[in-house]
Amino acid sequence: MTTPEFTSNRDNFCYRHPDRQSFVLCQRCMRTICPECQTQAAVGVICPECMKAERSNRTPAQKRAQRQWGARSRGSLAAVQSGKPIMTYAIMATTAFVGLLQLIPGLDITGLLLFHAAYLFPDLTGLPFQPWRLLTAMLVHSGIWHIGLNMLALWMIGRSLEPMLGRWRFLALYVLGGLGGSVAVAIISPDTATVGASGAVFSLFGALLVIGLHLGANMTGLFVILGINLVIGFVPGFNIAWQAHVGGAAVGALVGLIVLRTRKREQRVWQVLLLIALAVLLLAAVFIVPPLILTA
Question: Which of 29, 53, 257, 280 is the most exposed place for a label (fewest CB within 10 A)?
Fold first, then answer.
């Protein structure tokens, strides 16, 4: 493309390097920028001048977060992962696939994966021992709105939280939150069967709340959203397992606290051990407390 019309149109060339052809625009000022001048941002690629302006306009909380969690801080929590939140998308894809399987008549995926405390105590209930239901309940939902709202919340929070924590910490948080939700249901309401990723999703709320408060961010909006969702669980007619919400949020807050206190590289072993200890504590609680209630 070397026609006079093309070469005379300066919009076809980088504004900082007039000799470099490009068709990529800065998503803020809409000027043409070459690959060397492109910086990836939440809105897409932006030019160096817009990036400088964005950094100068950051709030004190955002600057503090960058210092404590940013990739340039080697003493902080690993490094902020670049690229897309792969684990968030993987969880969403897996959950959506199971949701499709639930629609197949005669397959009864919901019955195979839902959680009920009775499956943990075959001697008391006569049902088979199936402890994996503590986690598989996260994959099945009661309807399109149930899975849609949970996955929307996961997508909204995961895009920010996963790069901050790292993929494997984020997965650990999600799984422990789901486990915490099932454990809370088994302890508070052992006769209740439950499905859904609400416990896991609420663990993301809990962790983000703890981390945000530590960084000095304004968490009023998150408090409101969390409060509304917790209250809805107590409203008659909604048929929501509020126990899973409370359990997931509590476990998420604990995981957030553990990660905060052990974010230095030399504390990595302690971080892993504390997360394992939390999982063991949850399992111990679910196998000790419900039998006392069921036999009472």
Answer: 280
